[in-house]
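When time allows, look over one protein, given below as sequence and C-alpha cells. The question is which stretches look regular and which look disordered:
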Amino acid sequence: MSAHASAAHAPAARATTALSPALADLCAAEYPGLPAGYLNAATHALAPARTVTALRGALDSWAAGRPDTGGYEVAVADARAALARITGVPLSQVALAGTVAGGVGLIAAALPPGAEVVAYQEDFSSLVHPFAARTDLRLRLVPLQDLADAVRPGTALVAVSAAQSADGRVADLAAIRAAAAAHGARTLLDATQAIGWLPIDAGDYDYVVCHGYKWLVSPHGACFLTIRPGAESTLSPAFTGWYGADDPWASCYGPVAELAPGARRFDARPAYLAYVGAAASLSLIEEIGVPAIHAHDLALADRLRDGFTALGYDPVPGRSAIVAVPAVPQAVHQRLTEAGVAFSARAGNLRFAPHFYNTPADVDLALAAAG
C-alpha cells in the first residue's frame, strides 16, 4: 500500500483507552478546553489546571511583595516525596538535580581515571557527553541491543536511557541489570522519557536521573536524582552548596559543618517555582496512577502505530508511549502542522508521544492528516 493510502483502509483499531470513566473525567477537568492534536509529551508535556493554579498563586504572591519561601520549601518537600513514591524508593534516596547533564556530571566526575563506562552510542547527549568530556575515562559506545552483552569484567558503569528520545525504544533493562550485577558494574538510568508512563523501580539502579517536564507534566527545572544506598560513597560532595547541609538555613556561610544524610547531601539548589509546579503535577500523576497511565498511553501509541502501518509506513516496533515513524515525506509534516497536530522530528523520525490527557480523537486527527 502506498504511503498516502487512505486511512479508511486501516484495520480495526486496538483498545482506545485504558482509563476508567472516573479517571477520564479527572483528566478532562484538569485539561479543560484542550484542543485536539497535542501529541508531543516527549518534547514538553502539558501542565494540568492544578499546576497552573499553583504557579499563578506563587507568581501573584511574589508580584505582591510576599514571596512565600516557607510555601516553596513545602512544595520542594512534597515533590521530593511524590517522586520517591512514584519510583518506589525511600525519601532518603532522592536528591534534587538542576538538569540531567548536571546529575550525570556528578557521577562522571567521581569515576577514577581509566574507569570503563558502557553506553548506547546514540543515546541522549546529556547522558553520554559528561563521560565523553572526561578524556581519562574509557567510554565504549555500542548499539542498544548489544548493551548488556558489552558489560564485562572491569566495567565500572553502564549508562542508558530507559526509553530512547529519538525512536521510543525501551532498553532491555532486566538484561542490563543482570549483566551489571554479574560483573560488579554500577548502573545509571536516565528515566526522563520514561517515569510518568513506564513503571520504574528506581531502587533497581545505583543512580536514576529524571527531569520532570516531559512525562511528569512538570515545569522545566524540577529534576531528580535517586541514589541507591551504598552508591552515595562513590560521589563527591564537591558540588554541594548550603542546600545539601543537614540544616540548610543554618549553613549559609562558611564550609558546611554537617551534610544531610543520604542522597540529600547532593541536592542542587531548587528552582522554587519549578517545584511549586512539580508538587501539583506529581499529585495528579499519583492520583491517576502510573499503571493506568501506562495502559492508556500504550493503547494510544498502538493506535498510532497501527494507523501508520495501514498507511504504508514502517513505525519503529515495540511497546512504547513514544511512536517513531521513519522516512515520512516533508509534505506530511506540513499537513500535520496545518491540521494543528503537535509532534516533533528526531533523528530522521516523525515522533509522537501521547499521554494521559490525550484521547483517540487526537490520534485520529494525526492519522487523517498523515493520510
Notes: Residues 69-288 form a domain with the Aspartate Aminotransferase; domain 2 fold (CATH 3.40.640.10). The chain has eleven helices and ten strands. The CA atoms of residues 87 and 201 lie 5 Å apart. The radius of gyration is 21 Å.
